[in-house]
Automatic annotation (TrEMBL):
<feature type="region of interest" description="Disordered">
    <location>
        <begin position="92"/>
        <end position="124"/>
    </location>
</feature>
<dbReference type="InterPro" id="IPR008974">
    <property type="entry name" value="TRAF-like"/>
</dbReference>
<dbReference type="Pfam" id="PF21355">
    <property type="entry name" value="TRAF-mep_MATH"/>
</dbReference>
<feature type="domain" description="TRAF1-6 MATH">
    <location>
        <begin position="197"/>
        <end position="305"/>
    </location>
</feature>
<feature type="compositionally biased region" description="Low complexity">
    <location>
        <begin position="95"/>
        <end position="104"/>
    </location>
</feature>
<protein>
    <recommendedName>
        <fullName>TRAF1-6 MATH domain-containing protein</fullName>
    </recommendedName>
</protein>
<dbReference type="InterPro" id="IPR049342">
    <property type="entry name" value="TRAF1-6_MATH_dom"/>
</dbReference>
């Protein structure tokens, strides 16, 4: 090429020049000796091309997210319209039923039964419609909060270390906790609270006596947070706890889990203003402390744990 001195096939010269000397260069072609400025220019052109490719990919991803969001909102709007239509029909039916007063008693009973049957069907439709709306809204909210938390973690993990779905901490004074559990029947060790999918949660463990043995349970408490007004209640995510060996690797066995469907709603409802939370709930499953000790999970009187909130 007479412009950049790169090696280009004859058939590709026009394409090469139209691209600003960025394309159709023969791979590994030698450069004129001692031409540092030319080398720098070609390097800058390659970096510019790479940045342009990344920008195009980011734009395409943003456009795809926008399309997905618009589709979700459209679906939600349609479901809401259907639910309100059913509700309006139900109210109109109730109003018409209440205005009938001049019929005979037998006719009244028959009409009342018919209205009850129709009302029952309409109520069922209304409930199904509202349930579908809530499911669609929850799906959208989970997707939105997951993307938002992922972006927050990528941009500034130091400012918000618990904004994503996982949180590691060390339960210290292991021997003392075990001693208290043997004496009092139980001992709790909470972690510092953090935000998970927008919800403020305090993970914890409980050492509890089961006969002559002491076992560890997973626990958590949903706390009053900054984003409560924007979230869907009750909290409905499954959570789990992994035991970590000193090297930082998670246990190869099954983690302790709490299934949201098995938790009383009073623990997962929105905390009242002025309150800290609704109290902790704990897993029914547990692990024997002897298994933790023999498995090498207790190190320097500490137990390293990883708490996760699933989407």
């Amino acid at each position: 090429c007479s412009k950049c001195a790169s090696t280009v096939l004859h058939r590709d010269v026009v394409v090469h020049l139209k691209s600003g000397c960025l394309s159709a260069v023969v791979p590994g072609s030698p450069l004129p000796p001692g031409d540092d400025s030319l080398r720098e220019r070609i390097k800058e052109n390659a970096e510019t091309r790479k940045a342009w490719t990344e920008a195009v990919a980011a734009l395409e991803e943003t456009n795809a997210q926008k399309t997905s969001l618009e589709a979700s909102l459209t679906e939600l709007k349609e479901l809401l319209a259907q639910s309100f239509a059913v509700l309006a029909t139900l109210e109109r039916s109730s109003s018409e039923g209440g205005s009938e007063s001049g019929d005979s008693s037998g006719r009244k009973r028959h009409s009342s039964k018919q209205r009850d049957a129709n009302g029952s069907s309409e109520v069922k439709q209304l409930r199904e419609g509202i349930a579908e709306v809530l499911r669609a809204w929850k799906d959208y909210q989970i997707r939105f909060m997951t993307q938002r938390c992922k972006a927050t973690c990528d941009q500034s993990s130091s400012k918000s270390p618990t904004a994503c779905c996982g949180h590691e901490w060390c339960a210290v004074s292991y021997a003392s906790l075990k001693e208290v559990a043997l004496r009092d029947g139980k001992a709790d060790a909470p972690s510092s609270p953090g935000y998970f999918f927008g919800y403020r949660i305090e993970p914890m463990i409980r050492f509890k006596t089961h006969g002559k043995s002491v076992r560890m349970h997973l626990g958590l408490q949903v706390l009053h947070g900054e984003h409560d007004e924007k979230l869907l209640w009750p909290f409905h995510h499954n959570v789990r706890l992994w035991m970590m060996v000193p090297s930082g690797q998670a246990s190869g066995g099954c983690p302790l889990e709490i299934n949201a469907d098995t938790v009383d709603d009073r623990f997962y409802t929105k905390p009242a203003d002025g309150s800290r939370g609704n109290g902790p709930c704990f897993s029914s499953s547990s692990v024997d402390l002897k298994a933790l000790e023999s498995g090498g999970f207790v190190d320097n009187d500490q137990l390293r744990l990883r708490f996760e909130v699933l989407p």
